[in-house]
Amino acid sequence: MHDHRRLGRELDLFDTDPLMGAGLPYWLPDGAVVRHVLEEYVRAAERAAGYRHVYSPVLGKRELYEISGHWSHYGDDMFPPMRLGGEEVVLRPSLCPHHALIYRSRSHSYRELPLRIAELGGMYRSELSGVLGGLTRVRAIQLNDAHIFCTPEQAVAEARAALDLIRRAYDDLGIRASRYRLSLPGDSGKYVADPALWRRATALLEEVLDGVEFESVEGEAAFYGPKIDVQITDPAGRESTLSTVQIDFHQPERFDLHYIGPDGDKHRPVMVHRSIIGSVERAVAHLVETHGGAFPVWLAPVQLVVLPVAEAQEKRALDVVRRAEARGIRAELSGPGHGTLGARVRAARLVPYQAVIGEREADAGCAAVRLRDGRRPGAVPVDELLERIGARDGDRGTELWAAA
Question: What strands lie across the sheet with 270-275, from one edge to the other?
């Protein structure tokens, strides 16, 4: 059973320091590579699906969260306000109020809808020290978030398309959903008191889930509306939410959002919230535990390690590294100064591809290939090896060495 906290430190992906504070991990170079590649994958998937990316500040005036309802319904999870001159500002616990303001900053016609706004943005939650751990429960979160502003008639189709994006991402990442949950309000007072709003949003989400096996659970909704939670399970059997899709009638009303309909009048849009991979921190934690640090080729911090047998082959090995890097392949040299060939091979056991270059391979312009799964395809021309790695990186395939 893999624990991402132990593996993350062993693999030099992330760490913590008491001077930075509990629940505030930092990313080491290899972990930063995984995070960067994952974030770029999400951005590309969103662009292909018609999303436009924005940036918004991690601070907001207290009044912003009073309007959104976070201050009254979510205040226990927010950091205390800070005084700036005569104003109080807060580290944001959510991106949706900022995106509502971005939408509100311009007038919109029904012809522009659906308008899909996405951001990989920071947010902060005042988690208790006792629940913090690794990357799964942190205080500084990088969230893959998006909000779709659409007509009521478009809401179901947009939410279904969001679920499709989530499914495709899970296939590419090599992870799977353990179940789908329709999260509904409970009896506590933390939910917006508008029964008609809840019934309307719940009916639409049930329509979105038509044909999908799911469970309804009370007490797990967002304070402003029901949501579809895509649940994952770690190797220890602990379940958590990674991705979400929500239909929100509350915040468009609170922020007085509107669009101009074909009749020339103002109409209230629906706000669909969705996150493909949730927080980057939790997503990486789950990937580490699912793959045991042996990431899919396209996510691996190092995709190819080149191992010259002796110092005489180091120049040729370095040339292979440079040729790989020129193709966008993440490659490293592990020369004799790092130990015996056997020790270097063992140290690189999680790297998808190892290229051993001895005297014979150097003379022939080849590399003796070893795969992470133990297979040895043998001596392969360097250009062919790099072409194969590039193909696996580009198509996000799971097979390391497909038959020629």
Answer: 52-53, 115-124, 140-150, 270-275, 239-248, 227-233, 179-184, 214-218
Note if the pTM is more than 0.85. Answer: yes
Tens digit of each residue's pLDDT (9 = 90 or more) over 44-75: 999 999 999 999 999 999 999 999 999 998 88
Q: Which of the pair, 295 or 192, is modelled with greater confidence?
A: 295
pLDDT beyond 80 at 185: yes
Rounded Cα–Cα distance for residues 163 and 276 (Å): 8
In this structure, are residues 64 and 336 in contact, taking their beta carbons and an 8 Å threshold? no
Q: Is the pLDDT of residue 237 over 90?
A: no
Q: Are strands 353-357 and 304-308 parallel, antiparallel or unpaired?
A: parallel
Check: CB of residue 176 under 8 Å from CB of residue 290: no
Residue 324 dihedral angles phi and psi, to the nearest 5°: -65, -45
Which stretch of DSSP H or E encloses residue 33? helix 29-48
Q: Which residue has the tokens 């194969």?
A: 388
**204: closest CA among 186, 182, 221, 178?**
182
Q: With the CA atoms of 95, 160, 206 and 101 taken in that order, what torsion angle do they form, in degrees rounded to the nearest 10?
A: 20
pLDDT digits (tens, 9 = 90+) for 245-270: 999 999 999 999 999 999 999 999 99
Mean pLDDT of the chain: 94
The tokens describing 260, both together, are: 């101009």
Using DSSP, how many helices (H) and how many strands (E) does the chain show?
13, 20
- CA neighbor of 285 nearest in space, from 276, 297, 277: 277
- 310-316, long-range: CB within 8 Å, 24+ apart, which pairs? 310/336, 310/358, 310/359, 311/335, 311/336, 312/359, 312/362, 313/357, 313/358, 313/359, 313/361, 313/362, 316/357, 316/362
The CA-atom distances, in angstroms, between 357 and each of 50, 304, 379, 403 are 46, 13, 9, 23
The answer to whether the CB of 370 falls within 8 A of the CB of 376 is: yes
Q: Identify each DSSP E strand in 234-329 by its residue range.
A: 239-248, 259-260, 266-267, 270-275, 304-308
Helix (H) or strand (E) holding 76: none
| DSSP annotation of 20 | T
- What whole-number distance in Å separates Cα of residue 15 and Cα of residue 134? 8
Contacts of 185 by beta carbon, 8 Å cutoff, 6+ apart: 191, 198, 218, 219, 221, 226
Nearest to 106 by CA among 271, 260, 248: 260
pLDDT more than 90, % of the chain: 85
Place of tokens 């509990």: 22
